[in-house]
Specification:
The complex is a heterodimer. By secondary structure, chain A is mostly helical. Helix content of chain A is about 75%, strand content about 0%. Chain A has helices spanning about 5-20, 25-45, 60-75, 80-90, 90-95, 100-125, 135-165, 170-175, 180-185, 195-205, 205-220, 225-250. In chain A, helix 2 (about 25-45) packs across helix 6 (about 100-125) and helix 3 (about 60-75) runs parallel beside helix 7. Chain A is elongated and about 60 Å long. The mean pLDDT of chain A is about 95. The longest helix of chain B is centred in the C-terminal third of the chain and has 16 residues, at about 170-185. By secondary structure, chain B is of the alpha/beta class. Classes of the chains: A mainly alpha, B alpha/beta. At the A-B interface, helix 1 and helix 5 of A face helix 2 and helix 3 of B.
């Protein structure tokens, strides 16, 4: 059985696990929608669609949606399930089988990507009543799903690193909170050009900025290829880095 | 002669904040194919560490270990194909059903979907879990979990089965059921390497035993040989029990052991 097939088998198991704990999916929908509604309520009047050029004629909810999508993608539960496997001894059972160490990592991340595709699609549909549309059309919507899922893989990979290193649910949970400062050090409320200089510098060094700008471009405009290339590039590089570090850590796991 | 398990000068050191801890300090072992081999020792003696090294779950600090003729450090995947492992905590996924768990395990060992389904059914019958097969594992009793764990270690018909305290926490009836299953598995030709804290279990099941204490093997032989050696050395009228052999080998008194038990249960 190839690494790819093994990852598929393990990914299937991880998806089954998620479907059997639907309560773990609720925060992935509720909290991002909560932020979308609250941010729209607080700043929607400041940025009316008719007179705010960076909205390209859409509602402020469309500008805010990428932040909510990234937030949902960062709520993946793969790492917490991994800690459960470690604590319960099932991880050792898997390690004692002749499964590629890469498949052990990729299986869960693959399931996280699939979950994120579904959650992102649902969130976009839920955002439609707030005046949001995907300006880049069906292909843009597809790219939006793929890029958000790529980010889900990156962040789940980061959380899995913490899980493998600490083997602790508490530490892994805390790792999830790191995303909040990252999310707010971005052009979250206004485009990068309107940020104060220190904030603009911080946002420029923050990889989340580029993924957010790429998602935003797909929602507000037609295809802005340079912005998309930066967003996909950042997510792909970080994704490869996370998978590499995970595989390395799992090989050294004693 | 090809040994089922062969370890030479096996050492495991951990580096912690308080310095280096030597959990296993040079273990030599030879287990013949087809044997039931018992590995005994008090808490913290190095039993689990040794079994984890032999099953590729832990790196060796130094020494060599071969299982079914394969060097576990040099060819871990080849070794994994020949061994079955059931560790102290029944390593199961509580959200899967018993059947799903066995099918998944068989698939990971390279079986096709139909082969995996057939093997899962055979094993469910072997460990008498057919009726519970479609239930999620979180609802299983301790004994059922142990039997399922045992079944999952057998999906690929391993040459050597490693069991780390397979009956710890089980009621006497479940323990006897597991013993019967182990005997059946051994009769089919599988070598069994088990650790246990129950000396009665070792006496009932094992062809040969080794006792480890402080990371070193302090006694090795058949239960009969070990008892007879102690009887002669102490000039006893009758054969001592395995408990007495264990106490003698580890330099522990009954009082000290009772203290250790209290510590564990506190």
């Amino acid at each position: 059985m190839s690494t790819f097939q093994q990852a598929n088998v393990l990914g299937g198991r991880a998806l089954r696990e998620a479907l059997r704990t639907p309560e773990s999916l609720v925060p992935m929908l509720f909290i991002p929608m909560f932020f979308l509604v609250v941010n729209l309520g607080q700043a929607g009047k400041i940025f009316p669609s008719g007179s705010t050029s960076f909205l390209h004629g859409q509602s402020y909810a469309a500008f805010q949606l990428p932040a909510s999508l990234l937030l949902a993608a960062s709520f993946g539960s793969a790492a917490l399930y991994l800690v459960e496997d470690i604590e319960g001894g099932y991880f050792d059972k898997l390690r004692a089988s002749p499964v590629s160490r890469s498949a052990l990592v990729i299986g869960r991340l693959q399931a996280e990507a699939v979950k994120s595709l579904v959650i992102t699609a649902v969130l976009v549909v839920l955002a439609l009543p707030f005046g949001v549309s995907v300006a880049s059309g069906p292909l843009g919507f597809l790219l939006l799903l793929v890029l958000t899922s790529l980010w889900a893989v990156v962040y789940a990979g980061f959380m899995q690193l913490i899980a493998l290193k600490t083997r602790s649910a508490a530490a892994t949970n805390s790792g999830g909170l790191v995303f909040f400062p990252l999310l707010f050090l971005t052009p979250n409320f206004v485009p990068r050009g309107l940020l104060t200089r220190p904030m603009e510098i911080a946002a420029t060094f923050n990889p989340v900025t580029y993924v957010m700008e790429a998602l935003r471009s797909l929602i507000l405009q037609d295809f802005a290829w340079a912005t998309l290339a930066r967003g996909f590039g950042v997510a792909a590089v970080l994704g490869v880095l996370m998978i590499t570090l995970n595989v390395r850590l799992i090989r050294q796991y004693d | 002669m090809k040994f089922a398990v062969e370890a030479e000068s096996l050492v495991k050191q951990y580096r912690g904040r308080g310095g280096t801890v030597e959990a296993v300090r040079g273990v030599d072992l030879r287990v013949e194919a087809g044997e039931v081999f018992g590995f005994l020792g008090p808490n913290g003696a190095g039993k689990s560490t040794t079994i984890r090294m032999l099953t590729t779950l832990m790196s060796l600090t130094s020494g060599t270990a071969r299982v079914a003729g394969i060097d576990v450090a040099a060819e871990p995947d080849a070794a994994r194909r020949r061994i079955g492992v059931a560790l102290q905590e029944a390593g199961l996924d509580p959200r899967q059903t018993g059947r799903e768990l066995l099918v998944l395990q068989a698939r990971l060992f390279g079986s096709s979907k139909p082969q995996a389904a057939r093997r899962a059914q055979e094993l469910l019958e072997l460990v008498d879990l057919v009726e519970a097969a479609e239930r999620r594992i979180k609802g299983y009793s301790g004994g059922m979990k142990r039997r399922l764990d045992l079944a999952s270690a057998l999906v690929h018909e391993p040459e050597v089965l490693f069991l780390d305290e397979p009956t710890t926490g089980l009621d006497p009836a479940s323990r006897v059921t597991v013993w019967d299953e182990l005997r059946r598995i051994n009769e089919r030709g599988t070598t069994i390497f088990l650790t246990t804290q129950y000396l009665e279990e070792a006496d009932q099941l094992c062809d040969r035993l080794a006792i480890i204490d402080g990371g070193l093997i302090v006694r090795e032989g058949t239960p009969g040989q070990l008892k007879s050696e102690l009887r002669q050395r102490r000039g006893l009228d009758a054969d001592p029990t395995l408990d007495e052999v264990f106490l003698d080998a580890t330099g522990r008194t009954r009082e000290r052991l009772a203290g250790e038990v209290q510590e564990v249960s506190a």
